[in-house]
Amino acid sequence: MPIIELTSTDTTTTGGRTLPAHLAEPSPGAPVRGGLVLIEDTNPHAYRAEPAADSWQRALAFLDEHLPNGS
Q: What are the start and end residues of every segment in region (Disordered) (predicted)?
């Protein structure tokens, strides 16, 4: 199950842009090989500091771009 699960097929308009309101889940049985943990730095087998920091900054930049101010 994804961390964020939006199941509506409607669209959401934010900041003048229309974005899809759902995230597709992988097909049943499809392998999910993320290989990167962004927050759980207590797992030395999965956490890699440099790519995690880069990914976290990209995620925040995406949210800043697509969410209205004050969200």
A: 1-28
